[in-house]
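U., I forgot to send this yesterday:
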Amino acid sequence: MSVAFVAAIFVSNVPQGAAGTIALRAAGTSNRTISMMWGALTVASALVAIAGYAIGDTVPNGGLYAQVFAGGAILVMLADSMMPEAFQHGGRSVGLLTVIGYLAASILTIAD
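Result:
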């Protein structure tokens, strides 16, 4: 597993988790329920990752089409929900931080 992949998962999930937790708390969801939801999501993600790893070598073209689809889905999610909310709550500095994050991901990818 590459360092860039692990770093990308960590970096992308921290703000998503924080935003989701804040929204759930604002909606009146209990801390216990929030913890149970995040725990279930973590277990489900681990199981899907294990399954993907197990069948990864059987996918045609080394999973190229699956990676392209996943990359497009991430871009849509960012453009549709994450960036507008980030600008609303974080202001203009969000653009600079986004570029810095992209630069860091690019460096990790090249270094790997």
